[in-house]
UniProtKB/TrEMBL annotation:
Keywords, sorted A to Z: Iron, Iron-sulfur, Metal-binding, Methyltransferase, S-adenosyl-L-methionine, Transferase
Keyword Methyltransferase: yes
Stored Pfam families: B12-binding (PF02310), Radical_SAM (PF04055)
Protein name as catalogued: B12-binding domain-containing radical SAM protein
Keyword Methyltransferase set for record: yes
Domain Radical SAM core, chain residue ranges per copy: 169-394
B12-binding domain location: 1-146
Organism per entry: Lutispora saccharofermentans
């Protein structure tokens, strides 16, 4: 029998800028974002589902509880995003000094395996389910390698993926629980490493698998908000609609990441409402056409910008809130971008918004470009939070970008703006009731 720890290292929710952190931590407008960032580490829960039955597991989220380094384990598994990497290495080195085997996976280890291997005993590069059989065989034969790489990136069949060990979360009171139903992204955005980690082909679990996971979460944590943690949850419309039909009547509350094209599918929107969708996250990225140019390989988002206003209105008229994400300080942005972005958010009455700055994350085209231009100012991964400025902007100074970001958040958080948003959301709640009435005479639901 093995005793193992599954550790998600501590990170920074709003970065390290004290002015921005103090404001955002007390902002009611950012409550939806705080909810998004409170979920568990799904990668660790998924790999735990592959462990032998006699292994004893402990899940530790350092954002919620401190790590007790006096606890004795046989193996420590760590999964980290880039901003968590430094802390991940510190944790690993503490356990290694005790002779405990350390294993690291996740997005940072996948794009920076050689770096990670300097601090970690074993690095898993790619999807854990695909790498696990080789790892466990070598562990049993006492023949472990330093780095395990998935030779067929993006080919793992998610229909073989085990149900995550949601039972390991019993000691936590998460505001939401995550489900991943798909992997792969064809857009290849310059600021994102998703296609490098999961490949460009779009892969999906079966509806039967997804419903089993939903039922397990509902059984263990009744009423908990569910996040479909996919880059784009509704690419396969036929299967998505069949799933939603089966979710109707399950008394669920859920949110998802998707794209603006769902506005053109009225059947999908109605099914989403009836199945319990509360709000959706859409990456608008920018309100500037020049800044959207070449942001993704096919300029898909640039082609959608003229439809933004109408599409947002259509989606929200169904009672589904639109939460937008934006990047300010892109190379074609000058100081006008801050007012243009705040006007867009307020004029379109977005349910919520998250505005960040360009961050050259490892594995991205953006990092390669900015390194070549000698514009990367900070190599300490703990500053790669998306709110801390680690590059030299092109059309403004670093201080102008920092001040503009903070001022933008102030503009969308005024008392007047908050009151207008509240009135609008109350109207949206009324709108969704006519769809919910099809499954509930009381028409229960709305924003919660």
């Amino acid at each position: 029998m093995m005793k193992v720890a599954l550790i998600s290292p501590k990170g920074n929710m709003f970065g390290k800028n004290n002015r921005l952190v103090s404001f955002l931590e007390n902002s009611k407008y950012m409550e939806s974002f705080k909810t998004l960032w409170t979920g568990p580490n799904l990668g660790l829960l998924t790999i735990a589902a592959s462990f032998p039955d006699d292994w004893e597991c402990e899940y530790i989220d350092e954002n919620r509880i401190p790590i007790n380094f006096e606890s004795d384990y046989d193996i420590v598994f760590i999964s980290a995003m880039t901003q968590q990497a430094q802390r991940a290495y510190e944790i690993a080195e503490t356990y290694r000094s005790k002779g405990i085997l350390t294993v690291m996976g996740g997005i940072h280890a996948t794009v920076m395996p050689e770096e990670a291997s300097q601090h970690i005993d074993v690095v898993l590069v790619g999807e854990g389910e695909a790498l696990w059989p080789k790892f466990i065989k070598d562990l049993q034969n006492n023949n472990l390698h330093k780095i395990y790489t998935d030779a067929n990136k993006g080919s793992y069949d998610l229909k073989n993926s085990p149900m995550p060990r949601y039972d390991l979360l019993r000691n936590y009171e998460y505001l939401l629980i995550t489900i991943q139903t798909t992997r792969g992204c064809p857009h290849d955005c310059s600021f994102c490493a998703a296609s490098k980690v999961f490949g460009a082909s779009y892969r999906r679990k079966s509806n039967e698998q997804i419903l089993k996971e939903i039922n397990e979460i509902s059984k263990l944590y009744p009423g908990t908000l569910i996040l479909f943690a996919d880059d784009n949850a509704f690419v396969n419309r036929r299967e998505a609609k069949e799933l939603l039909k089966n979710m109707i009547g399950m008394n669920l509350r859920w949110i998802a990441q998707t794209d603006i094209s769902i506005a053109s599918d009225k059947e999908l929107l109605e099914l989403m409402v009836r199945a319990g969708c509360q709000w959706i996250v859409i990456g608008f990225e920018s309100v500037s056409k020049s800044s959207l140019h070449n942001l993704d390989a096919a300029n898909w988002k640039l082609g959608q910008i003229n439809k933004y206003k109408e599409s947002i209105q259509i989606i929200q008229e169904y009672g589904i809130g639109v939460y937008g994400t934006f990047i300010v300080g892109l190379d074609n942005d000058d100081r006008d971008i801050f007012r243009a972005t705040s006007n867009f958010i307020l004029d379109n009455k977005l349910y919520g918004a998250n505005i960040t700055v360009p961050t050259p994350l490892p594995g991205t085209q953006l990092r390669e470009k900015l390194l070549n231009e000698n514009r990367v100012l900070e190599m300490d991964w703990s500053y790669y939070t998306l709110w801390d400025i680690v590059i030299s902007p092109k059309k403004m100074t670093l201080i102008e970008l920092e001040d503009g970001l903070i001022d933008l958040y102030y503009r969308i958080n005024t008392n007047v703006s908050a009151e207008k948003r509240l009135i609008y959301l109350r109207q949206l709640t009324k709108n969704r009731r006519k769809y919910e009435a099809a499954i509930s005479k009381e028409g229960e639901g709305g924003y919660r």
